[in-house]
Amino acid sequence: MDGEEIGLLLRQERGQFLEFLSAYEYKKSSAQKPSEDLAREIARLAGGMANADGGTLLVGVEPDKAVTGIPHSADELQELIRAPGALLTPPLAPACRRAQLGNLVLLKFEITSSPDVHRIAGGRAFYRITTENPALPPEQIQSLRDSKRSVFYERQNVIDATVDDLDLGAVALLAEKIGDSRDPISVLNRVYHLIDQSSERTAVTTAALLLFAKEPTRWHPRAGVDFVKYEGTERRHGAALNVVKRIRFEAPLCRLVDETVGRVKEHIRERTLLHDLFFRERLEYPAFAWQEALVNAIAHRDYSLTGAPVEVWMFDDRIEVRSPGAPPSPVTIEQLRHQQRVHFSRNPLIVRTLADLGYMRDMGEGIPRMFQEMENHGLQPPEFSTEGFIFTATLRNTPIYDESTLRWLNQFGATSVRQRRLLAYAYAHGKSFSTTDYQRVGEVDRDTAYREIRLMVKQGIVAPLKPKSRSYKIIEKL
Question: What is the DSSP string of 102-126?
């Protein structure tokens, strides 16, 4: 590992696939961490990445990217290198390379998503979500173990496929995007683990073909997207068939998102609204919400279900994005409906590549932001459901606020969904409310209501009607 490779990592931000770990107690301190403590941190972070989507751990770097090195002895360095194998159950053996940057020593661990759930001593299992590495609740560990049995499909080596079946020009564009100057074959092998050159014949994974194949349908008959636009609010068949438009998108996943978004957005209507005495145009669905639903469907669908594509059904009153495969545990419909930060990749190799292509950001944050975007546009919250083996995300264009209320709400900026609903209630009730009103409208207990109201007071959105009062008035900014 040379300085150029380290520089490439340091130009990136910490996130789902990259973490920096200091060997010191705190920045600018001469006190190094005991090797036992540092080894446990390495095992915890490596285990969290292996339990999730994989990634890179660079030891000897501060969270703010200052390179401080590892000041430990040669024997202690070996202990650190062996930490994932010695401290995790089952043992984890990530590739580890040592680098010398001037007089500073660094360690780089390359961790792949594992088919097992790795626990550290004491039985705790960690799971990487963006820049965090929380411990999984005990009841979710078995769910995660069961779900990992379904991740093998994208990793399968396709016997009759070769590197010549891949669009290496598209891989080169990806390498350019992440700032990697190595040749496309090396990027596929060493960065994304999409091919395997450990034997005489290079093996190509299903994920590599789904992402970069020159002829995608040769390797998977329904890996694309079907867009169907219907007249009215229901599907009809036979003589009453109400299909207005049908488009099938078949492209490698590295291009599929752009091609689908580019054509579907042509059918997203604009609404003419009266705003401040002027007529303004606004799309009937916020772009982030429906595009996030589409990207999630492409990234997380079950590709082993080869007989069904991702489908986008557009009706007069809603868009349905339909994806083969129910959400894999530990993700549940209820968690999605309650906007919890959850993340599990059925296809971690595909997800990592799509993330570096810029299609996926802030893992675990997309669903909460969909709710926020729909709320900011005065629309009903997203709906999630499963029917058979199909998971559906539904966005409705029916407003929940009239234009006057929405315009009034938007003066308060990016408040939470619950706060906005309370403010809308207050707008219709003299621009004041009580703690009891908050409990009823927000469907929360008294302690939660009190805590969130205090936050709104701190934000300057509301103020008590009088000292120690449990009734509040809205502080209008306009």
Answer: TTEEEEEEEEEPPSS--EETTS-BB
